[in-house]
Amino acid sequence: MPAIVLVGAQWGDEGKGKATDLLGGSVDYVVKFNGGNNAGHTVVIERDGRREKYALHLLPSGILSPNCTPVIGNGVVIDISVLFEELDGLQSRGIDTSRLLVSANAHVIPSYNRTLDKVTERFLGSRRIGTTGRGIGPTYADKMNRTGIRVQDLYDEKILRHKVEAALAFKNQVLAKIYNRRAIDPDEVVGELLRHADRLAPMVADTSLVLAQALDRGETVLFEAGQATLLDVDHGTYPYVTSSNATAGGACTGSGVPPTRVDSVIAILKAYTTRVGEGPFPTELHDEMGAFLRDTGAEYGVTTGRPRRCGWLDVVIGRYATRVNGVTDFVITKLDILTGLETIPVCVAYDVDGVRHDEMPVNQTDFHHATPVYEHLDGWSEDITGCRRFEDLPANARAYVLRVEQLVGARVSAIGVGPGRDEIIERFPLRPHGAQHTE
Ligand code: GDP
Ligand code: IMO
Ligand code: MG
């Protein structure tokens, strides 16, 4: 029965939170499968006649839908105090968070990895990645290095202490001898983690089993990615990436639900491109057009507040996202931000040292040298925020969507025309067939 994966097609902040929230009312589970509180997903909903904004970092956006069970899968890295802060924040606004399930196999972010993330970036100077400083990279590195701390370790103090001491025996040397920082006391770290154990205990579950049983019962599961295709550690613009698999395959490894159960893959594509942090970005605009997109689109990070780098839509990236994620449906977001432009450039290929590339260059050096080849589409001036059917859009806006659809190679099923829950055009149903659940 339906398992749907929802991913970002570009470098993040495409509007995954809004799209997940849109589907939240018709699915039974929403699962976060990668990343941690480096993500920032904004959802704007009407409650009691007022427009309310929610910024979610660690929790899946499904938490805002009353009948949907939110799940944090094994592929996520958890900063437990941030998790509790987020839960408290939602509870104080009247949101029921009691159904949250957390995988016993998810890794936790100990405070020493936040410290290491920040000091490493400072040490790298001009070679820095521009991370969010939340300890994400060092925690995934520990996981792969088999020195990580898992949620289940909080319930065996002896093992927890052993693991923290072993990790710090090495990390304290690095902190003191390379970064000239004070050593961290293992007792402090153990105490901090144990303080959270009791409150977390009722949420801890074998989430792979829970999801398998739900799918067997015919219920619907939505996987919500953090980050995006080009931030994926394997398929992104390495090393300027995050440290997890944000592409569709990550939904399986990050949840314990096998690929044979996935029915569709929805990719969120912003009508232009943004990026936070360092790394190559062929269509980036350093002029007043970049400033226009940033100001009109309110492109400032939800997690760090950093201004996002802005540029035109790049369909070489869109096509790449279709291929590596197996996209069945695209949601184009923020089409409203392009209103008022006479022509809209769309990058359809790259020129790399005189050679045309229609696909992502396999070598990162070539990608760094890529100059966009633009196709110029006609713009529109009418306000589109009130459009709710595809036919309501001005002809040039429709033509823009249809041309992008042709170029990315998968159908555009929905179009965002504003941040609100209802500010969307559903061209084809995104809700899976067979979904039984309604709010
Ligand atoms: P995410 O990380 O992919 O969930 O995206 P973010 O929440 O970081 O950034 C997307 C921003 O765009 C948020 O502020 C959303 O409220 C907003 N947004 C999403 N869809 C639309 C849309 O169609 N139009 C406009 N104007 N804003 C949108
Ligand atoms: P959402 O889910 C945009 C970027 C950081 C940095 C790189 C590595 O909101 O789309 P990390 O702290 O993960 O080690 O940083 O990845 N990054 C994001 N950029 N949106 C995100 O999440 C991001 N999460 C991480 O800016 O360049
Ligand atoms: Mg975001």
Overall morphology? globular
Give the C-level CATH assignment of the largest domain: Alpha Beta
Which hetero ligands occur in this complex? guanosine-5'-diphosphate, 6-O-phosphoryl inosine monophosphate, magnesium ion
As for the number of domains, it is 2
Q: If you consult CATH, what is the topology of the largest domain?
A: Adenylosuccinate Synthetase, Chain A, domain 3
Task: Write down the overall mean pLDDT.
Answer: 95
Proportion in helices? 25-40%
Strand order of the largest sheet: 9-7-5-2-10-1-11-15-19-20
Query: What separation lies between the terminal Cα atoms?
Result: 19 Å
Number of helices: 12
- Spans of at least 5 consecutive residues whose pLDDT stays below 50 are 433-439
User: Quick one: CATH superfamily of the largest domain?
Assistant: Adenylosuccinate Synthetase, subunit A, domain 3
Radius of gyration: 22 Å
Summarize the biggest pleated sheet. 10 strands, mixed
Q: How many β strands by DSSP?
A: 20
Quote the beta fraction: 15-25%
**Structural classification:** alpha/beta
CATH architecture of the largest domain: Alpha-Beta Complex
Which key terms come to mind for this protein?
alpha/beta, disordered C terminus, 10-stranded mixed β-sheet, 12 helices, 439 residues, Adenylosuccinate Synthetase, Chain A, domain 3, 4-stranded mixed β-sheet, globular, 2 domains, Adenylosuccinate Synthetase, subunit A, domain 2, binds magnesium ion, binds guanosine-5'-diphosphate, binds 6-O-phosphoryl inosine monophosphate
